[in-house]
Amino acid sequence: MTATEAKALGKVGVLFGGRSAERDVSIMSGTGVLQALQSQGVDAHAFDPGQRSLAELAAEQFDRVFIALHGRYGEDGSMQGALEQLGIPYTGSGVMACAVGMDKIYTKIVWLMHGLPTPKYAVLDANSDLDKVAAELGLPLIVKPPHEGSTIGITKVVAADAFKAAYDTAAALDDSVLAEEFVTGREFTVAVLGQGASARALPIVEIVAPEGNYDYQNKYFTDDTKYYCPAVLDEATTAEMQRIAVEAYRALGCEGWGRVDVLLRERDNKPFLLEVNTSPGMTTHSLVPMAARATGISYEQLCVEILRSARLKMAAPATGKE
């Protein structure tokens, strides 16, 4: 990128840290993004909304911001709404897409309305009949807090007598709890860039975790998890997985960039959508940079491409009238 192109991006804030349970991961992501942008000559500055106020954010007079926040208060539409109010263009999806994408229950509802495949589920509260849910979904099943990411609070329930403890773990983090059919098969993720008709899928990444346990530790802090990109799949399966990932992204109104997690059922090679990440990780272990590299896009180039897409989503369109 030329000095003129870097200057045209203006003063850039990289938002990371925040107040969610994913703060530590966000710091790793944001630090990487900040260094990458600065290496390209961008006038980029760190800003941690977990330690500084929105008034301070406004006072910085950023021309645009790169959102490297994960989880609540950063990936759920709240920060996006604040930036709309402040008039600061930002990367990634808008308020509605982030809010829906952060809620795994509403995400499923939208996907099912669009005819997209996702595992069967039940929404649990303190009065739910767990034995009935286990009978309907079958064992094993997955229990998770629907508003957390990075596999925080997730439990695989193999025996019925472990269901209540799994519920309690998730309920400690969220007002509602999601129980989901366990799909036996291979695990993949599909990065998507762009918006609307121009949204495109990057090469698929297969995730092979120790004993199939892709938890917080195996995601970020060990080298035991193996990643294969492009994933070894036949052309038809690759095309179908990328198709439904892009359709899932569009159905929620996502834009800029995102990542859609998919399971490929072992018995029939049918793909099932798990969740969408509207502010994916950008750490050294993260999967969007890995997918980009497979197409010849460096980490630095990816950060610049995402930054260039920053915009306000709720601004009134130009009418052409004085």
TrEMBL record:
What does the entry comment about cofactor binding?
Binds 2 magnesium or manganese ions per subunit.
Report which residue ranges the record marks as coiled coil: none
User: What is this enzyme's EC?
Assistant: 6.3.2.4
Instruction: Kindly list the GO molecular function terms attached to this UniProt entry.
Output: ATP binding; D-alanine-D-alanine ligase activity; metal ion binding
List, alphabetically, the PROSITE patterns matched: ATP_GRASP, DALA_DALA_LIGASE_1, DALA_DALA_LIGASE_2
Give Gene Ontology CC terms.
Answer: cytosol
- What enzyme class is recorded for this protein? ligase
Which residues are noted in the entry as Mg(2+) 2-binding?
275, 277
Subcellular localization? Cytoplasm
GO biological process terms on file: cell wall organization; peptidoglycan biosynthetic process; regulation of cell shape
Q: Where is the active site?
A: 22, 150, 286
Q: Kindly list the positions annotated as binding Mg(2+) 1.
A: 261, 275
Pathway participation: Cell wall biogenesis; peptidoglycan biosynthesis
Q: Where are the transmembrane segments?
A: none
The catalysed reaction is: 2 D-alanine + ATP = D-alanyl-D-alanine + ADP + phosphate + H(+)
Q: Kindly state which keywords UniProt assigns to this record, in alphabetical order.
A: ATP-binding, Cell shape, Cell wall biogenesis/degradation, Cytoplasm, Ligase, Magnesium, Manganese, Metal-binding, Nucleotide-binding, Peptidoglycan synthesis
Chief site of localization? cytoplasm
> What InterPro entries has UniProt attached to this entry?
ATP-grasp, ATP_grasp_subdomain_1, D-Ala_lig_Van_CS, D_ala_D_ala, Dala_Dala_lig_C, Dala_Dala_lig_N, PreATP-grasp_dom_sf
Which cofactors does it use?
Mn(2+); Mg(2+)
One short Pfam family name for this protein?
Dala_Dala_lig_C
Domain ATP-grasp, chain residue ranges per copy: 108-308
Report the protein's function: Cell wall formation.
Its family? Belongs to the D-alanine--D-alanine ligase family.
Q: Which HAMAP family match?
A: Dala_Dala_lig
Question: This chain belongs to which protein, by name?
Answer: D-alanine--D-alanine ligase
Protein species of origin: Rugamonas brunnea
Name of the coding gene: ddl
